[in-house]
Structure formats: structure tokens, C-alpha cells
């Protein structure tokens, strides 16, 4: 296993040409009012790790440059394409208008949820994760093609939004990539 120090993890500033040269998976990650800047920064890092097409920050989610996002993302916010939308519903509607084949997958505890083991989906997709307290907005859940829920075997009833996002994304990559991580 290779270990990196803090300086090695924080790559220099990329130029537009280098960022555009990254081969990306047709994955959009939508943050529906995620408030914790460390979660946002960590999801930037995750978006880079899975080579997501774009991260879309919505509602009250902070946007870069923000010192906490910078720290948690280890500067991957500079490498990951991102945009801001006033609502997650706007983000979903915009993406669906660009590509009708795109599937909207929400990670949420809901009466319509399927278990992670039953998740079957291909690319392109948008994965929506929600507010740390209130979850994904009802309007976005209505637009979902799939609502997936992670099994909880202990006493706690939920996982951190970044952790949930990472588990679902890697499950999707495992099923859809020729050379999964």
C-alpha cells in the first residue's frame, strides 16, 4: 500500500486543459441542501475518486472556495467539475432535459426504497443525497427513478451522507465498470 503525506495529497492547481483531459464516468452527484462543509469537501474527494462527470451543489450547500471544503477535499474541488443550482429539483430537471436516458437515484430512507443489494442501474445516472437532518426534498423524491436505502443492522438509524454516497457509488461502479475498483 502506498502512503502519501499531506503535501503529496494536495496536488497543485490544475489548468483547464488538464481537468478536461480526465476520463470521467457518466455520474452526476447532486447535494440536496447538504450543510456540513466537511461533508461537501469529502464528497468532492469522492467525486474525484469515482471520476464523476460533475458535482452539483444545491440550496443552502456552501460552494468553493471555502476553507473547510478546501481542507476536506484536499483541493479536489479544483479538479472536479461542479456547479451550483438553487434547488436540487432544478438540477434534476436540467439533467433530465439534457438526457432522457439518465436515471435519478436517491439515497434515502423511504417507503419506496429498495435495498442496496437490489440496486440495478446503468449509466448515465445522477445520484442524489440529502440534508443531514431532513434528507432529500419530497419534490426530488417524486422525480426519482430509484430510491435506494442502506441496511442498518445496529442501533443507529442512518449513516453519514458522504459515507452513504460512497457506498452506493462504489456498488454502482462495481456493476457497471469493466475494470471496477
Automatic annotation (TrEMBL):
SUPFAM superfamilies: alpha/beta knot. Keywords: Methyltransferase, Transferase. Residues 27-170 form the tRNA/rRNA methyltransferase SpoU type domain. GO terms for molecular function: RNA binding; RNA methyltransferase activity. Pfam families: SpoU_methylase. GO terms for cellular component: cytosol. InterPro entries: Alpha/beta_knot_MTases, rRNA_MeTrfase_TrmH, SpoU_MeTrfase, tRNA_m1G_MTases_N. GO terms for biological process: methylation; RNA processing. This is tRNA/rRNA methyltransferase SpoU type domain-containing protein. It comes from Candidatus Gottesmanbacteria bacterium CG1_02_37_22.
